[in-house]
Amino acid sequence: MKIGQRGQVTIPREIRDRFGLRPDSHVQFRVINGSIVLKKAPKKLDLPKWKGRCKDSFSRLGYSSVDQFIDDVRGR
User: How confident is the model over 7-50, as pLDDT tens digits?
Assistant: First the structure.
């Protein structure tokens, strides 16, 4: 494979399909032990969208907070 004038390369279709790389996918480049590694970037969660969604469910279970539920599950 050859790097183009603008530093671009084409990822083979088999690899794109296997790892779900589509147009506009975000990727990360890393150097690990002297090798260049390309990795699909994790999706960013829209956390404000989900804030407070479980409040009623936790209340029905007798918990006043998510932290209280987590402590209970972990046996603290």
Answer: 999 999 999 999 999 998 999 999 999 999 999 998 888 888 88
CA angle 56, 62, 66 (to 5 degrees): 65
DSSP state of 35: E
Which pTM does this prediction carry? 0.52
3-state secondary structure of 46: coil
Structure tokens at 65: 């907070």
Tokens of 39: 């990795």
Residue type, 50: W
Q: Do the strands 27-32 and 35-40 form a parallel or antiparallel pair, or are they unpaired?
A: antiparallel
Q: What is the CA radius of gyration of the chain?
A: 22
